[in-house]
Amino acid sequence: MVTTAETYHIPVLLQESIDGLAIQPGGVYADMTFGGGGHSREILRRLGEKGHLYSFDQDADAEKNIVDDDRFTFVRSNFRYLKNWMRYYDVEQMDGVLADLGVSSHHFDDADRGFSFRFDSKLDMRMNRRAGKTAADVVNDYDEQQLTDIFRLYGELNNAHRLAKAIVKARQQQRIETTGQLLKAIGVDNDDSSQWKKDGAKLFQALRIEVNREMEVLREMLTSATDLLRPGGRLVVITYHSLEDRMVKNVMRSGNVEGRTEKDFFGRVNAPLHIINNKVVTPSEEELTRNPRSRSAKLRIAERV
Known about the structure:
about 300 residues; alpha/beta; two-stranded antiparallel ribbon; 9 strands; about 40% helix
């Protein structure tokens, strides 16, 4: 599949998120999810000669979209290692961190990656194809209770146990290696109802989150970003499902993922961040028409105090 910056990923809430960074021309910024480079290119347009942008992506395919600019550094790594890499580059403080947590259009459209059940392909779902277990490993090696737990926790599926039981039964006959075999195991191919399609999408989401350790990784990145931001620096995050949105909201409100608040003697909340937009920003009707995949996107912005 031929991939270009234009087809890799259509940037979501582009102007709104970049405006939210309140970019200083000489500032230091990080784009946690480079992808097709849409957000990174817009940041670079607003940076001056002394500004610098570090963009992270662990997917080798994203490297084809690297920007040729002296003010740009591509970091081929999971964004959980933000603090380690900034230490490597002698960066002590940053002026802004942007993270678009959505799965790139490229991943859904590339049949070989196994992110979508539109194609009958290998169950992979790894963002980094150089390491780690695949979705097939999870489906075939986790016991029934483990599968139930991840479907319930990461897919928020009410019928998690029934789905896990169906998978365990199916794999006893044959190892489940493809998206088609997985859908057949849970009965989606026999039922074309919208509810089954929603359940299939949630199940795929749960597997993707488990394979890539997304919630654990997000927690580490948010903590590192908060620590690195200088006073007045901005944290801008685009979320797509309730689990990650809840975590981001908690960090911005309280400084921790649990949402646990600490108050001073006068009852004022002690938090390292101040929320800029109490009402989340969502895509306009024009953007939804242009890019339907942005429908569930929510933009949250906070400033380091």
